[in-house]
Input
Amino acid sequence: MDEKVAVNRRTFIKTAVGTGLAMGTGLKVPNFVKAKSKEQNALYEKGAKEVPTVCGVCSGGCAAKAYVKNDRVKQLVGNPKDQAAGGKLCVKGYNSIETLYDPDRVKYPMKRTNPDKGIGVDPKFVKISWDEALDHIANKLNTIVDEYGPEALMFIMRSNPFSSRLGKAIGTPNFISHQSTCFTTQEVMWRSMVTGGGKPWTYDLENSNYILSFGCDLLGKAKNMHLRNTASALENGAKLVVLDPRKSTTASRAHEWIPIKPGTDLAFALAMIKVIVEEDLYDKDFVNKYTEGIDEIKEFVKDYTPEWAEKITEIPKDTIVKIAREFSNNKPAFIPSHKRDAAGPNYSNSSRLAQAQIILNALVGSIDRKGGAILSRNPGFPGFDEVFPSPEFPQPKTQRIDGFEQHPIISEMYRGDFATLAEGILTENPYPVKAALLRGYTTLSFPNAKRMTKALTKLDFLVTFEILPSEAVQLSDIVLPEPHWLESSGFSDRGYHCLHPQVAVRLPASERLHDTRGFSSIITDLAKRMGYGEYFEGVSGEKWNDKQLKGIGTSWEELSNDPDGLWSKQLPFEPTTEFDTPSGKIELYSTVLKENGYDPLPYWKAKREEPSEEYPFYFIISRPSVHKMHSTQNNPIANEISPENHAVMNSKTALELGINDGDEVIVESKVSQIKVNAKLIEGIRPDCVMVKHGFGRWSKELSVAHSKGANEGDLIPDMTVDEMRNINDPGAGACMSDFCVKVFKA
Output
């Protein structure tokens, strides 16, 4: 097992549901958490001030109550009336107070005085005022746009209506965000086959009878609500089957773990489809009423036999047949998928696996039905342009620095490709980019992170919005500090568990501890200083919040005065009967994919790279449950639980190579190498090496996280635009595990 401590299924369920901590991983409960849990009852008894808030650690957005005493946030608990949090938070949420009070936080605007940039180079920052910072940024960006054109400016950040408007006003096409390393492969298939929009994130797992996971580690690294609902399903008697090359947290609690060969999940899924349709096991009522393409499916899978799949997956054909029959005969049955599992952007065939998973869920009637994937019931907020009409925007260039416009479906939904960005910047193809505004990412967020560092140092001007002094901060010319989410206000819908419309408000639980400003305020002020004030007339974050809420029948005043901080519209669950596709049905044979030049059915395609004599191991990435990507390693609680990563190897294989547990080893790919300690376990395939994500922080200003572990992203090859296009993947996934490595003693 990957985890050292064995926890039986019933004990794990009681622990996960009873405490809300994602500690079913065999990791110790740290002293910080023990001390705070003793303090909680005392806070209730002494009547500490209670402030409704929404956890800002991840996009799950769990509603919470912050308990404040003597002007200090002492405790966070889940809001029991929130359908997403269910009264519980995960360990990341509980310990996030430590980041609020982190002494390493960026406390004021800073300007670089050292022109040299690079890993380990001291920026020699000096403190400046907000006026000086914004005037300097405005002048520098205007000079670059005047000389090189608006396309010379990039926005590297998640989509935000304020920054999007500023970028459109300037006229740049270059909005870059992370989804190509996250979930575009799944999103494009749901859009094409089911929703016409995006992927559903609500899973009714607690009502599932049979959960089949293709590497989706629901109990080990997903969202709070997914962990709790999976635990409830197991308590209710559901069967859990996991296909995964390593014995993950979820696999270790499953009824059956199937150690499939990496990148071959598609073959397993195709053989399952063949068994189900050939043996007439599919839900005929659902398929006949709500899907199109069953006849094409029957013809399509004729050659995808369990015998064929056995040769590819190394899973016995009888096991494949058994799982297909169980999946069909134990409804509600469901295949959940969350971001970076096997259907995520890991392999060149991951989009096809996502396509096959949708087909399988449709065959058993688990799309927008109890026990399956639930389509969004989020309230319909008015759009930014509807609330704040603007003058006409200039027409930007169609070509982007990352070539993302060449992917016709996914480029309509998301902005940018992390896998190709460094190549575009360094080669200046199709044009030079000179400046970037970066928020929420660090260089370690990218494939081939060292090359991305080189690309960012090539820019003439880099502005970073941050809370902590990340690696991107160390490369920046101007750093603008934002408030911690416990110091800010806003609201969130229940995107990750929305069975009915609900909104949760976030009120500041703490005064702003440092000289910080909110993002919307910064962008609005910057726009005016750059000469784009006409696009922001009457626009503010406060008005935006209120206008959205009034659009659904409430208001900021009403919601912020509600003691629970919740607005809900209780509606009975009514299954969807018409889907947003050209046919109005779930398209098993996707006309949208076909019209855009892609395969309408998930034909078998192998991953790009297999083990060789030089690189004999498949490479697997996992994400620790206590960390949120690269954002929590400096948190002392998270660091105590999970301070560094390792090269996790099969015990027998490692010993044959002369590698013992704890030995320092080199893991090398064709682009780079990292140095970590070996961790030997039995619960991983002999041909695999796994390294956890989020470590190797090189910023010396991160006093807790600095130099612990290594960044597995250094090993991941990035791509050229031509390489990405030639894969012909409608999801444009970054293929983060589609390469092999070698391991040897350091």
